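[job 4471] stage=fold_predict status=RUNNING
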Amino acid sequence: MSYTINSVVSGSYPSMTNCDGQVLLPQPGMENDSDTKYGNINMMKAMADSVNTYFVPLEKQVGLCNVVHMAQAFGLGVQGGLNSAGTALLPISQTQTLTLGVNSLTPLQIANAYAAFAADGKYCDATAITRVVNASGKSLAVPASNCHQVVPQSVAEGVNTLLGGVVSDEGTGSNDAIRWSDAGKTGTTNEEAQAWFAGYTAQISDATMMTDPADPSVSLNGLDMAGISHDPAYGDETSGPIWQQAMNAAMSGLPDIRLPFAPAPSSPSTPSSPSSPGAPSKPGKPSAPHQPKHR
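[job 4471] inference complete, writing structure tokens
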């Protein structure tokens, strides 16, 4: 969490190699949505502020194929749509912008992946059936949820700490926090066409997404949403309040169980001086669609 990267003002998505051995050439457009001049920052600050130009270089260092394998282990290996033949779900696109969330995943997938961090790194397949009772009151067997350890408990605790920083006073999701111990992440695509908030407690994980179902490419900026409009329509201001309201209702009556957190770095990095590299005010437009933005 204290690992620092020089988050530059702008640049190209670096060359990476996918799991098929294909070398992806550099692509222009790696930018943030903020004009904050970051420079060298640690992971806590980068996650709290959603700094694209931190996580793309980190993906390069870790290796794109390793990121793909981890996504698959958390149930994020396929997208929410079918292939052209209509016979199978599309695999995730292995692009340099993978780490920023360019694939069309469902809220259920995201919520289920986040639930694994609350469960000490154990991932369980989602199941909609918890109990079946016949007419005579006898309980019938239901499909078991396949569970397996994906990451060590210490890694899950680190992720909880990072995502807990997002809903802290310093994070982009600070206004969406609830009174229970929680963690979460904001997300907004290019042109504010989709706005997300996903988060969890020790008991419940939930993901909320807003878009135009008739045309998901339409910007949400300035649209009337129940008498309220936002411009820009960031995830923390649109989906975040919905998540907050839903979680407050779902958690009502449940105890406040502290999420398993790891110790945060003792002295988080702060934005650098104006002379250091910074981030532009507009998001980039990479070759892959729907690059999540700063908020």
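[job 4471] summary: Residues 267-292 have pLDDT under 50 and may be disordered.
[job 4471] exit 0
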